[in-house]
Amino acid sequence: MASRDILILAGLGGVGLWLYSQQAQASSDNSSDTGSGFDFGSLIGTMTDTIKNTVENAIMGTTRGERNNNPGNILYSINNPWQGATGIDSAGFVIFDTPENGLRAMYITLKNQIARGLNTLAALIPTYSATDQAAYIANVSAWTGLDPYQVFDAGFIPVLAPAMIRMENGNMPYTQGQLAYAASAAGVG
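and the corresponding structure tokens:
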């Protein structure tokens, strides 16, 4: 576990315990008061989720994409019996047997989307991910040097995919060999 993760856990845990103690104290002091205007329970629930995700990332192998060998965070679809798919996680993302098969699936997904005419960052990214679209497009644009409205073809995937992996996972942990395998296996490099 990285020292940054330990500090985050300790800080969030401490704040959560303090807030819980404040709520408990307020409840005992004002048992007839029906509300303070602030929902401590909701805040504690949110903090619990944040702590759970941080612990899961620290213990189980960083990000969901890395744990699932699914760097593109591809959702499961019965229409795509991916090579190397071994299951789905609780959020519906495909779990692959190796990072290479997950990378291959991402490259093929991008190749198919580009073939359907989603050949600019501004067109492709909103169909690929449901996260903050403006930030996703801006970051991938900056990391690839490609204008959001510049047209590209499948030959650009070896440049595009690492930037999207970085956006999906917060890092790009895959080797040039793994990326080259995926490009070759998907027919784009």
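(Above: one complete record from the training split.) The first strand starts at residue 85 and ends at 88.
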